[in-house]
Every structure is written in structure tokens, then in C-alpha cells.
Amino acid sequence: MLSTSNSNAHHASPTGQQRTTAILVTGAGGEMGHGLLSALNAARTSNSSVGDDAHPAIIAVDIRELAPEIREQCDHTYVGDVCDHALLERLLAMYEISEIYHLAALLSTRSEFAPETAHQVNVGGTLNLLHLAAEQARSHGRTVRFFFPSSIAVYGLPDLATKHAAGAISEGKFCDPHTMYGCNKLTGEHLGRYYDHHYRKLAKDRFENPVDFRSIRFPGIISAETMPSGGTSDYGPEMIHAAAAGREYHCFVRPDSRIPFMTMPEAIDATVRLMRTPKKNLKRSVYNVSSFSPSAEDFASLVRQAFPKAAITFQPDLGRQSIIDSWPETCDDSAARRDWGWNATHTLQAAFSQYLLPRIAGRYAKTSAH
Ligand code: SER
Predict the structure, then answer these.
(1) What is the pLDDT at residue 367?
(2) Would the CB of 233 count as within 6 Å of ligand 1?
(3) How far is Cα 127 from Cα 2, in angstroms, rounded to an integer?
(4) Fold classified for 105-363
(5) Cα 73 versus chain centre, distance
(6) How far is CA 165 from CA 168, 326, 367, in A?
(7) Which residue, 15, 184, 186, 204, is the most exposed by fewest CB within 10 angstroms?
(8) How far apart, in whole angstroms, are the C-alpha atoms of residue 241 and residue 359?
């Protein structure tokens, strides 16, 4: 395990007896980590912390060395595996953790090539982090708030006719995932609910509700800043980034393929909003969120409008197509609207004109200038 401390840290290096109060982010180097760390820092700087502590340290774990711009956002960073018990024991000893954002996972396409490894990382890692949260709660006497990004991959529509007829799917329907990743996310949701409400039910020294577990079933997420890797919804972002970079793109699903998407700022906003909501308002532990649901052809048309030279062809891959066909067209997010005020900020058009195009054009202009 490698660890580094940011010299600009708000907190002294945790070497003494006293443990440093901290927010832990796993998988911090992934797509969501970027945006989430900025939001957590902004909340801390404006003194309106997401958690109870006004100035918790931000500590990050990732399997790879974190990029300098991510390290800058953290007080302490660790290169290590969420399956490494020694690393988690060390974090338990060093920090008094108030919140965990457990983002580390293998995505759906990658998981289909190594399902057992995916299970170890996605379920084993989640179990380890939930256990760390429960041990933390026991040691400092306060519930640990836990965020788990779940996915539309937990749904499994049996065929296209059912998918078209189903309309907006609510949280309790069609939870029969076709992918290992979907199975893992559904298991993670159940484990979280268990640690929150039922953990060590029969133990005499039981600490009630050690973990305050909150989860969002995200659709495909599109970021202007980063490229996804290993996901099945990647065709959306890949199409846009390829056109902006002047590369041709072979889309791996049919033009009529339709699943929900949202922009990265919407995903971060949803995460922070859910984590700030008082527990008493939350009637569920897992929520759908919904923004826009374009077909792959809708995407391609907007990309061609923005980048008239874009060369996009459709070359469906039957396996990845079958995954997309098993995911819903839209999700019913009425519970999220009701309980924590979720509201999408972008239509597909606005996502392009207000967020993606201005940022992506700048990004590739910078790249080609160097
Ligand atoms: N975007 C994820 C994937 O494609 C689904 O949550 O794996």
C-alpha cells in the first residue's frame, strides 16, 4: 500500500493518538471521483459540510496512483485495493470516519469477462467497506453515512417487447439482472440495507443502525471531463468524445437502442443532495433518478449537428446489445423527487448545448494545441 499526504492538508498527518475526522472516498480516480471530490471540497470550503463535522479530512483510496489534480483535492491518498483487509484496518486505526462514498467497482462490460473477479471486487469490496463503517460507528459511537452508487444494471427486462411496454420502471420491478455487475449492485443494495437496519441482530452488544446507507441507481453518466471505461453505456460518451477529437466512431449498439442517461454534474448533485437529506425524510434506502432517455440515433444526430465532420457508424456487438436491451428505457424517479427533492437539470439538448459542447470543445482544443 502506498500513501501520500497533501502538503496543503487541513489536518496534521495522523500519527498521534488522536484519530483525524475524515470522509473516505474509494475509487476516487474513477469518473465520479473527479466531480465528487470537487463537490466535497466546495462544501467544506463554504463551511456547509455534507456531514456533521465542519472540517473533516478527505481521504481517497484507489487501486491506481491518483492523478495530481485529484490528489490536490484530498488530504491523504492511498493506493490500494478495497479487498485488502490490512489497508482497511489501517484506515480504521488512523481515522474517525463520518462518511464513506464507496465508488470503487468494475463496470458491466469488464465484469462479463471476469465475473468471479467482479464479484470479489464489487461485492467483497462493498462488504469490507460496510464492515469498516460498522466498526467505525462502534468505535466512535456515531452512525456512519454511507453512499453506494447503484445502477440501472440491477434491472433485467426479459425481451424488447417487455422493455417497450414497461415504460418508466419503479424501484421494485424487474430486479432480475442479466449481468454480473447488475447482480453485484443489487447485492450491494441488500447488504447496505442489512447493515443499516439489521446488522448483528442477535448479538448482545449490538450497536443499532451503525450505517446510514443511501444509494442511487444511476443511469449511464456522461462527463465532459473524463472518458468512461469498461461500461456498457459508454457508447453515449464515447460518441461525443470521438467526434470532438476528430476520430471516427463505430457504435456498438443499434440506432434504436434506448436507455436513460444523465450528465456528471447531475449525478454529483444527486449524490450530494441525497447525502444532505435528513434520514427521517428518506422512505427508502435506494432511489431511481431520471433525466433524459435518448436513442443511440438521437445521440448521433446531435453529435453530427455539433460536429458536422463526425463519422459515426453503427456496428452492433450482439453481447453488449443484449445488455442494453435488458436495461429499462426510463425509470420512475417519483420517490427521489418526493423524499429528497431530486430534479433533473438537463434535457438532452441542454446537456449538449450548456454542458457537453462548451466543455468538450475546450478540452480537445487544448489537447491539439499541445
Ligand atoms: N454505466 C454503467 C455501465 O455501463 C452502468 O451503471 O456499466
Answers:
(1) 57
(2) yes
(3) 22
(4) Rossmann fold (3.40.50)
(5) 18
(6) 9, 13, 44
(7) 204
(8) 11
Confidence (pLDDT) at 363: 81
Read off the pLDDT of each residue in 30-34 and give the average, rounded to a whole number.
Answer: 93
What residues contact residue 233 under an 8 Å CB cut-off, 6+ apart? 219, 220, 221, 259, 261, 324
pLDDT one-digit tens code per residue, 137-196: 999 999 999 999 999 999 999 999 999 999 999 999 999 999 999 999 999 999 999 999
Closest C-alpha among 118, 122, 67, 58 to residue 91: 58
pLDDT of residue 2: 66
Give residue 46's pLDDT: 75
Q: Which atom of ligand 1 is nearest to the CA of 234?
A: 4
Is 220's C-beta closer than 6 angstroms to any atom of ligand 1?
A: yes
* Phi and psi torsions of 34, nearest 5°: -45, -60
- Nearest atom of ligand 1 to the alpha carbon of 111: 7
> Does residue 271 or residue 18 have the better pLDDT?
271
Sign of CA dihedral 206, 23, 131, 112: positive
| Cα 221 to middle of ligand 1, angstroms | 8
Ligand 1 centre distance from Cα of residue 233 (Å): 5
DSSP string, 137-198: HHHHSSPEEEEEEEEGGG---SSHHHHHHH-EEPTTS----SSHHHHHHHHHHHHHHHHHHT
pLDDT value at position 18?
80
pLDDT at 10 over 90: no
Query: Of all residues in the chain, what percent carry a pLDDT higher than 70?
Result: 92
Alpha-carbon distances of 234 from 2, 21, 163, 302, rounded to whole Å: 31, 36, 20, 16
d(CA 166, CA 152): 14
Ligand 1 centroid vs 138 CA: distance in angstroms? 34
d(CA 214, CA 221): 19
Distance between Cα 258 and ligand 1 center (Å):
14
Q: Is the CB of 153 under 6 A from ligand 1?
A: yes
